[in-house]
């Protein structure tokens, strides 16, 4: 089965850049298929599961795009893009087990098909493949991969444990997003710039850009979980609410309640969230009420603010089509909120 790739970060206005990215992503896809299909019949089926379900391939696209700021796509850039996407896919297997998610990208989650143990081991296998891929790129690449993996784990731990007493849950959530999502997108930008010859402030700028874009993208997803259709999401809208996963709109509403400034409708939403959301009717009513509450615009603006900050990080770079494309990339991460 061929993967259903949704080229989420594309198209870009520069035809030459878009063509280079399309060609590069096609090669990344070919290498990904090889990477998940070289162990055994028993291992290949679960490890291929999410790859075949498709995806935006945002992280490989960003690695390829940042490389255009320097010497362009190379063997090292392609391999790094593969390593980053394998790491991302591996993390999704583990996330779905921890969140008891029933679907991913419109398909049954791996643990629904093979059980928790197989899904976890499939994720571990993909982490191993990612490490093998990155190991061929040298010590600096291994260091970036290891530090990113640590941040992924810490981010997941912080989300699972929750904020300690006295910490603002909104700020805690932003730190979780920076760890769970921003760190790997920053690594993609880092790899692309590093293997295209960027150094110093230029390289640092794309790393900062990547992390901020990652947080913006995930904040946008927090909103879209409540405002998009099941067909677009690949899961039931409001699934995060049902599973008790913290999202920015709910956290902003709770912060308003703690400050004594929540309105009556917001209070009704918070009360409903404490009730039984197992039925689609109950969940749908809460989703509708929250989606129409003013707190949603606060969350949207927060996402847009991170996207603007991401673009501002690129100010040290000279003008170029690739820099313009990165600005477009940031806009595309949040324009889904329109």
Describe this structure in words.
This protein has a two-stranded antiparallel ribbon with strand order 1-2. The radius of gyration is 20 Å and the shape is globular. With 338 residues, it is an all-alpha fold. It has helices at residues 15-35, 41-52, 58-67, 75-99, 110-114, 116-135, 139-161, 169-194, 200-227, 230-233, 239-243, 248-258, 264-273, 280-291, 295-312, 321-335, and strands spanning 103-104, 107-108. Mean pLDDT is 87; it is low at 1-8. The longest helix is centred in the middle third of the chain and has 28 residues, at 200-227. It has a single domain, classed as Farnesyl Diphosphate Synthase (Orthogonal Bundle), CATH 1.10.600. Keywords: Magnesium, Metal-binding, Transferase. GO terms for molecular function: metal ion binding; prenyltransferase activity.
Radius of gyration: 20 Å
The counted number of beta strands is: 2
Beta-strand content estimate: under 5%
Please state the average pLDDT score.
Answer: 87
Please mark out the parts with pLDDT under 50 across 5 or more consecutive residues, or reply none.
1-8
Per CATH, which architecture? Orthogonal Bundle
Q: Note the overall shape.
A: globular
The CATH homologous superfamily is named Farnesyl Diphosphate Synthase
What is CATH's topology name?
Answer: Farnesyl Diphosphate Synthase
Please write the CATH class name: Mainly Alpha
| Total count of domains | 1
Q: Total number of helical segments? A: 16
Structural class, from secondary structure content? mainly alpha
H-E order = HHHHEEHHHHHHHHHHHH
**Alpha-carbon distance between the two ends:** 34 Å
Helix content: over 70%
Major beta sheet summary:
2 strands, antiparallel
Strand order of the largest sheet: 1-2
Family: Belongs to the FPP/GGPP synthase family.
InterPro entries: Isoprenoid_synthase_dom_sf (IPR008949), Polyprenyl_synt (IPR000092), Polyprenyl_synt_CS (IPR033749)
GO molecular function: metal ion binding; prenyltransferase activity
Protein name: Geranylgeranyl pyrophosphate synthase
